[in-house]
């Protein structure tokens, strides 16, 4: 029974020495001297703020993209024991001792290092020679721009890693299709494709470009499968469902899970709360939650409320009034109603409180039991401190003459009667009998007499003059089609009024509420709101010293100075390997010209290369050339500040195209032994130039050693490069 123990247990493993050597070299090139410089480098000043907020569990919104990349950077900080206490306010600031610099930069560096063996494997899976694959990996290894971008707390190396992992996984899956469909390895690589795609999109939305490319390629491959008569309808259906599950359902689920973890980690109120809705703010610990905890849920007649405009940008503001009146005449000579001013005020104030009154009754308190206000009900809004009614009439607003002035009515005993009835319309209602709810309901107030809608017009225009204390204008918008957010309000603070006397009511307006009703949002509601904010929130794009256009990237007419030593000439620049960039452009041009030539010849039934070589040429072009195109061309349509590092994903695909073209030229155009020998010698000479350029620019890729004034001037190969030279 135990006879097998008489023989030794032998485990045999195949080790690809090329792959191991490339991985080691990649790790050395990216991890060497990772803590240098021990100072904030370029966009570390931006991403570091988010890492600190993660460490402190404080909520934030970054309009640049999804949270997965930020969470990976924060993971590095967590593993290094970072407490989040560092002021990220200036490039070049020395890191304090509590900042684990090596740990924070580790994950981007590892991702950059692993791109080297990934490039090798992609060429192998495309059925190119190991020599070509080795060349591709070495070009990635010696690319100065990729080295620089990998060695700091930045996201591009992580993005490129997941992009290449997705491409490699799909190629491995596709190569298993003929002989091992639905096997364990087939499922592994298919699912890993979807996972890597979702991770790429989760790091930056630029990952969508490669994801769409792989979906298109998968769709094309499946289209070819449909024409295979050896596959039954059931088999085709199973293939379709498997791809739908792995390439669409799994990535969507993972993408949503990134936000779930993000929101679970960031449960505390922070400086970015104000752009979110009141309901979202109330779900966070501290901040608005401390104010709104225990408020009544249903708004009733007699409720005391504050009304926050839903738009919330460029600033949050609340419906407000005070004792001052509109001037009899404005600066342009137009007359006003001289009624009490109504504004939108960007700060919490006792004058933001209003009382919801039943027009048919005089009482300003909540009855027992409370009578809730529903969608379509008519109400009057009474200003809590001055007890005047919210009113609008056919008088032009001070800053928006096409709209009606909104005021609190003062009876001057003239021929201008009060018009203070408003219909409550719940925009996000589920039925026409919905109850108006605190925080959750988004409502419009439609004026009964004129059908004008209460609107915070000042959020999109100028503030009122000095007589209006520079507060924001509120108007009655006559053109009320649609539901623009500036016309939508929600109840933020709420209490049930109990005091009929004005003096007692003023005291009541300053006192906390006692009732305890939870208003926590579901995760999907928070996810939807946060996703919408990320997609629609736009910071004002300003011209940056190192910004560039997409045309500048191909010829590398620009660079970015990342860091400068305060005393020596040591500095770090985002600069590419000139030899590699020029070769990549030449390879793309050669591929395009040869492809057009082959297509024209094939149209005439002239086949210059065998069919399997043509299929190899097309598939490699679809991955490498297509990857370059989808990651580069969309930037011509983007209205945002662009930098050279935006080109790095496209550049990576273009670099992979170089050995593809070189092997094709060597195999099919160099037909004699002499030509092949000359071509090999040229490749060796060319690769030596790539290595020479790498060595020349490595001091400004790694920041060391420090260069002299003469050496720095010698690095300015182009007049457009901004090499920093200190004045003597």
From TrEMBL:
It catalyses: a di-trans,poly-cis-dolichyl beta-D-mannosyl phosphate + L-threonyl-[protein] = 3-O-(alpha-D-mannosyl)-L-threonyl-[protein] + a di-trans,poly-cis-dolichyl phosphate + H(+); a di-trans,poly-cis-dolichyl beta-D-mannosyl phosphate + L-seryl-[protein] = 3-O-(alpha-D-mannosyl)-L-seryl-[protein] + a di-trans,poly-cis-dolichyl phosphate + H(+). This is Protein O-mannosyl-transferase 1. It is found in: Endoplasmic reticulum membrane. One of its GO terms (molecular function) is dolichyl-phosphate-mannose-protein mannosyltransferase activity. Belongs to the glycosyltransferase 39 family. The keyword RNA-binding does not apply. The keyword Transmembrane applies. It is an enzyme of class 2 (transferase). It is a multi-pass membrane protein. It comes from Falcunculus frontatus. Its main location: endoplasmic reticulum. The lineage of its organism: Eukaryota, Metazoa, Chordata, Craniata, Vertebrata. InterPro entries: ArnT-like_N (IPR003342), MIR_dom_sf (IPR036300), MIR_motif (IPR016093), PMT-like (IPR027005), PMT_4TMC (IPR032421). The gene is Pomt1. The chain crosses the membrane at residues 68-88, 100-120, 126-142, 154-173, 185-203, 208-226, 246-267, 578-600, 612-630, 642-662, 674-694.
């Amino acid at each position: 029974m135990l006879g097998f123990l008489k023989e030794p247990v032998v485990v045999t493993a195949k080790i690809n020495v090329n792959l191991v050597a490339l991985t080691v070299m990649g790790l050395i090139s990216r991890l060497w001297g990772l803590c240098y410089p021990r100072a904030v480098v370029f966009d570390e000043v931006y991403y570091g703020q988010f890492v600190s907020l993660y460490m402190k569990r404080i909520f934030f919104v970054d309009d640049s993209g999804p949270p997965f990349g930020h969470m990976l950077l924060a993971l590095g900080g967590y593993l290094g024991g970072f407490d989040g206490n560092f002021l990220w306010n200036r490039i070049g600031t020395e890191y304090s001792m509590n900042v684990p610099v090596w740990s924070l930069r580790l994950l981007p560096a590892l991702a950059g290092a692993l791109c080297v063996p990934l490039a090798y494997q992609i060429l192998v899976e495309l059925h190119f020679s190991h020599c070509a694959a080795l060349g591709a990996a070495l070009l990635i290894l010696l690319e100065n721009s990729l080295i620089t971008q990998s060695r700091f707390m930045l996201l591009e190396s992580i993005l490129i890693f997941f992009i290449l992992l997705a491409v490699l996984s799909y190629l491995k899956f596709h190569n298993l299709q003929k002989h091992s469909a639905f096997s364990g390895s087939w499922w592994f690589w298919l699912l890993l494709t979807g996972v890597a795609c979702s991770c790429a999109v989760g790091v930056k939305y630029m990952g969508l470009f490669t994801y769409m490319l792989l979906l298109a390629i998968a769709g094309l491959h499946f289209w070819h499968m449909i024409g295979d008569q050896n596959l039954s309808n059931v088999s085709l259906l199973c293939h379709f469902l498997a791809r739908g599950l792995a390439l669409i359902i799994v990535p969507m689920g993972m993408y949503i899970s990134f936000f779930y973890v993000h929101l679970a980690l960031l449960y505390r109120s922070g400086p970015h709360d104000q752009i979110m809705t009141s309901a979202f703010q109330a779900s966070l610990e501290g901040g608005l939650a401390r104010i709104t905890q225990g408020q009544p849920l249903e708004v009733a007649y007699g409720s005391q409320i504050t009304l926050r405009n839903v738009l919330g940008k460029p600033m949050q503001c609340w419906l407000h009034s005070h004792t001052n009146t509109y001037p009899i005449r404005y600066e342009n000579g137009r007359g006003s109603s001289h009624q009490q001013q109504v504004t939108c005020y960007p700060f919490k104030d006792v004058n933001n409180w209003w009382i919801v009154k039943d027009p048919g009754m005089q009482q300003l308190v909540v009855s027992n039991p409370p009578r809730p206000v529903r969608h379509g009900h008519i109400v009057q809004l009474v200003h809590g401190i001055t007890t005047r009614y919210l009113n609008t009439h056919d008088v032009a607003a001070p800053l928006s003459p096409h709209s009606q002035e909104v005021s609190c009515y003062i009876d001057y005993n003239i021929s201008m009667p009060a018009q203070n009835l408003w219909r409550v319309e719940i925009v996000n209602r589920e039925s026409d009998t919905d109850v108006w709810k605190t925080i959750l309901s988004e409502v419009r107030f439609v004026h009964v007499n004129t059908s004008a809608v209460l609107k915070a017009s000042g959020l999109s225009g100028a503030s009122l003059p000095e007589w209006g204390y520079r507060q924001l204008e509120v108007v009655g918008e006559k053109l009320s089609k649609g539901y623009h957010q500036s016309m939508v309000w929600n109840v933020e603070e709420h209490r049930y009024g109990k005091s009929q006397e004005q003096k007692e009511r003023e005291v009541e307006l300053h006192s906390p509420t006692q009732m305890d009703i939870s208003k926590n949002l579901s995760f999907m509601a928070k996810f939807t709101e946060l996703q919408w904010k990320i997609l629609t929130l736009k910071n004002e794009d300003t011209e940056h010293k190192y910004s560039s256009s997409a045309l500048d990237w191909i010829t590398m007419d620009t660079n970015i100075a990342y860091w400068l030593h305060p005393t020596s000439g040591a500095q770090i620049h985002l600069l590419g390997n000139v030899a590699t960039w020029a070769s990549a452009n030449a390879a793309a041009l050669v591929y395009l010209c040869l492809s057009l030539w082959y297509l024209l010849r094939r149209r005439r039934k002239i086949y210059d290369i065998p069919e399997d070589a043509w299929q190899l040429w097309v598939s490699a072009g679809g991955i490498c050339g297509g990857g370059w195109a989808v990651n580069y061309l969309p930037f011509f349509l983007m209205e945002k500040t662009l930098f050279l590092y935006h080109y790095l994903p496209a550049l990576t695909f273009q670099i992979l195209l170089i050995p593809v073209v070189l092997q094709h030229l060597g195999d099919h155009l160099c037909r004699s032994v002499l030509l092949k020998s000359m071509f090999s010698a040229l490749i060796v000479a060319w690769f030596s130039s790539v290595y020479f350029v790498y060595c020349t620019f490595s001091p400004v890729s790694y920041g060391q050693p420090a260069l002299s004034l003469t050496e720095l001037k010698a690095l300015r190969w182009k007049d457009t490069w901004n090499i920093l030279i200190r004045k003597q």
